[in-house]
Amino acid sequence: MTRTMEQTAPRTAPPSRLGGLWRRWRGLGIAAAVLAAFAALSAVRAFTGQNPLTDSGTVQATLAFAVPIAMAGLGGLWAERAGIVNIGLEGMMVFGTWFGAYAAWVTGDPWLGLAAGVLGGVFGGLIHALATVTFGVDHIVSGVAINILAVGAMRYLSILFFQEAPGGGASQSPQLPGFPRISLPFVADVLGPLQQQRIFLVSDLAGLVIGLTTGMSVITLLAILLVPASYLILWKTPFGLRLRSCGENPDAAESLGVPVYRYKYLAVLVSGGLAGLGGVFLAMVASNIYQEGQTNGRGYIGLAAMIFGNWRPGGLAMGAGLFGYTDALQVRGATAAVHALLLLIAIALVAAAVVQWLRGRRTAAVVALALAVVLGVWFAFTDTLPRELVTYSPHIATLLVMALATQRLRAPAAVGRQWRPRGGS
Amino acid sequence: MKRKFVAKFAAIAAAGALSLAMTACDSSGGGDTGEDDGGSAGTSDIRVGLAYDIGGRGDRSFNDSAYRGLQRVEDELGISDIQDIEPSEGESDSDKENRLTLMAEEGYNVIIGVGYAYAEPMRNVAPEFPDVHFAIVDDEIDDVDNITSLVFSEEQASFLAGAAAALKTEEDHVGFIGGVETPLIHKFEAGYVAGVAEINPDIEVEVQYLTQPPDMGGFQDPARGQSAAEGQLDAGADVIYHAAGASGNGVLEAVVDREAMFIGVDSDQYQNASDEQKPYVVTSAVKGVDTAVFDFVQSVADGEAQSGVQRFDLATGGVDYTTSNEEQIGDIQERLDELKQRIIDGEIEVPTEP
């Protein structure tokens, strides 16, 4: 478990000049890495002829898979940054799917569904906050209780409200209205032919742009914007600093006059609301029906994405994106494209080997290189992967990246602890 | 302290994941109407108990079909002492055993387990109550005397679905989406692929499963169904058949979006579809769980209880294709009926394994 990997010794700070340089060029470095990865993907696409790797349909499916995970992950981020472990995200998502579906179905207005779904998630957050902050219940126990409660309670409500409805049942809602979808005009017309040309890099970019600008649900856009918004709020405002201080050292925060309870409550409510939004997305954007069990573990995967992203919004979005991308590829039936990913992973391993060698970690470099050779040979001598393996490719890819990226994960210091104010004593 | 926390976290996360995996729903069901009219017996000493699989009544599919069979038992056989019991979320095999035992002890002498999840529990419980007539839907148990297995030749109906798809496709490219890759769903795939090949071996068939066991989520994840269908449509398919339970709602949505064609499963999905969706539903491969349940209870009432494996196929009307969308099916119905007859006559052997 990554949670045990907290650093005990303070990180040795880099020399200040280098640190300043790094800070200044960090954005550029990340951009260059992303570009290089995309170029490698494009090269693999051109080499193997597996066009689904970068076409616009894959991009859109990636968004459809990544958004609910990212929303759950963001929910986890908000809560854990304030020191509350929120394993109840799954249940809060279930609240979001049901209440969103009910309000949208009754009123016929998807926006009221959105509001109700988010409020449903907030309601789940309120239960969690009440239990963990006010009553000091173990965070995990409360979260699991919410997950169980949500499934049972929503089934009860479904029997009450959906059973008799035309098209509804004890485990599903009638068909729901959808949100408007927006497209940039002309983009698909202009870039469409370019995508068909299958030119290295150019066609791939065209596919990416078309996927991101055509037929995108407004909720998808909203969800994407929430990632930078969370970063700005939590890291660039005094409010965010205070909230994070409650997760790092609530005693110190209290001594400086931060109302810790209020911040924790607020964080968990926002957390629930984000999970609820993820639920609304599942019921009304990724599909058009409330279905019991449709969250299918996405809340837990969101938590994993948050840990993957080292409790930061950008990393979390990358984790959700990686998972969503691999999942989209395999669910869309592009098993040959998943096979082509072997080659991409081999390339990534070679790159990792070079980096490790330069850093003087010879053993790690040799291991990475050996793995790369194995994968390369595997790719060269097979045409497909077993379906059983392909289904789990998102999980495997995520594990691989976590193993490769030798980042040091660091959870907020006081996460998961019961906290009581000391004021006055 | 830290370690304890981690252990607890892991244990509970695992428990949560497990209970999620068990929210599985069977993807089978029926909507076919029965053919014969019982009405004779009306034996008053028969008490019928029906235990549902996950999903329970109201799933508009498998379980509801079993319930319709139970209603016919009440209406036509005059048996009033009937009871149906819902499962609970994430229950284990021992919960199912307890439920079966409880029903038998309470004096129910006809007990039907709906769904293959009841296979092991029933195998364990049935020998203790030799006077009770047990039946299981969707699983073959032939070594216990008082268990009757009600199984369906899904591959035969799927064969006709494949033939319909092959006759309807304009791109010579069709698709199949299975919920979870289990042997049961393999039967659907095998029949479908064979049906397509019967019409035109050059037609390309996309096959996709949403999840692998033990993750049964593929039967209730419409978002996944929709993405899988979009993938197949993008690849060039224009008719999609699914055996994915509630995930099929997502498949239908994607098909309607692209104005392609959809073939339903289990129940007549044309009847369940909204007016906007109806034109795109070509036909459905249905499975008469209601008929099976009714026939079984009737056989007990008549004093000639069925035993062993009861197979419901095209010949008995236990599985079939639907013709409710007359506009779509009109021009191919003749061809399908001809194929159906050839299967019934044994001229065509439909494979059960892909």
Keywords:
heterodimer; A: 425 residues; mainly alpha; ABC transporter involved in vitamin B12 uptake, BtuC; two-stranded antiparallel sheet; 17 helices; 1% strand; globular; disordered N terminus; B: 354 residues; alpha/beta; Rossmann fold; 2 domains; 6-stranded parallel beta sheet; 6-stranded mixed beta sheet; 19% strand; transmembrane (chain A); transmembrane transporter activity (chain A); membrane (chain A)
Show the helix and strand layout.
The complex is a heterodimer of chains A (425) and B (354).
Chain A: H1 16-48, H2 56-81, H3 89-107, H4 110-134, H5 139-161, E1 181-182, H6 187-196, H7 202-213, E2 216-217, H8 218-236, H9 238-248, H10 250-255, H11 260-284, H12 298-308, H13 313-331, H14 335-358, H15 362-381, H16 387-391, H17 393-404
Antiparallel strand pairs in A: 1-2
Chain B: H1 2-21, E1 48-51, H2 62-77, E2 82-85, H3 93-105, E3 110-114, H4 119-125, E4 133-137, E5 147-152, H5 154-168, E6 173-180, H6 183-199, E7 204-211, H7 222-234, E8 239-243, H8 248-257, E9 261-266, H9 269-272, E10 281-287, H10 289-301, E11 308-312, E12 319-321, H11 326-329, H12 333-344
Parallel strand pairs in B: 1-2, 1-3, 3-4, 4-5, 5-11, 6-7, 6-8, 8-9, 9-10
Antiparallel strand pairs in B: 10-12
Helix pairs in contact in B: 2-10, 3-4, 5-6, 5-12, 7-8
Textual characterization of the structure:
The complex is a heterodimer of chains A (425) and B (354). Chain A is mostly helical and 425 residues long. Chain A has a domain at 52-333: ABC transporter involved in vitamin B12 uptake, BtuC (Orthogonal Bundle), CATH 1.10.3470. Chain A contains 17 helices and 2 strands. Chain A has helices at residues 16-48, 56-81, 89-107, 110-134, 139-161, 187-196, 202-213, 218-236, 238-248, 250-255, 260-284, 298-308, 313-331, 335-358, 362-381, 387-391, 393-404, and strands at residues 181-182, 216-217. In chain A, strands 1-2 form a two-stranded antiparallel ribbon. The model of chain A is unreliable at 1-14 (pLDDT under 50). The termini of chain B are far apart. In chain B, 58% of the residues are buried. Chain B folds into 2 domains: 22-152 and 289-312, Response regulator (Rossmann fold, 3-Layer(aba) Sandwich); 154-286 and 317-344, 3-Layer(aba) Sandwich (Rossmann fold), CATH 3.40.50.2300. In chain B, strand 1, helix 2 and strand 2 form a beta-alpha-beta unit. Chain B is 41% helix and 19% strand. The radius of gyration of chain B is 21 Å and the shape is globular. Chain B is built from 12 helices and 12 strands. In chain B, helix 2 runs parallel beside helix 10, helix 3 (93-105) packs across helix 4 (119-125) and helix 7 packs across helix 8 (248-257). Classes of the chains: A mainly alpha (425), B alpha/beta (354). Chains A and B meet through helix 2, helix 5 and helix 16 of A and helix 1, strand 7, helix 7 and helix 8 of B.
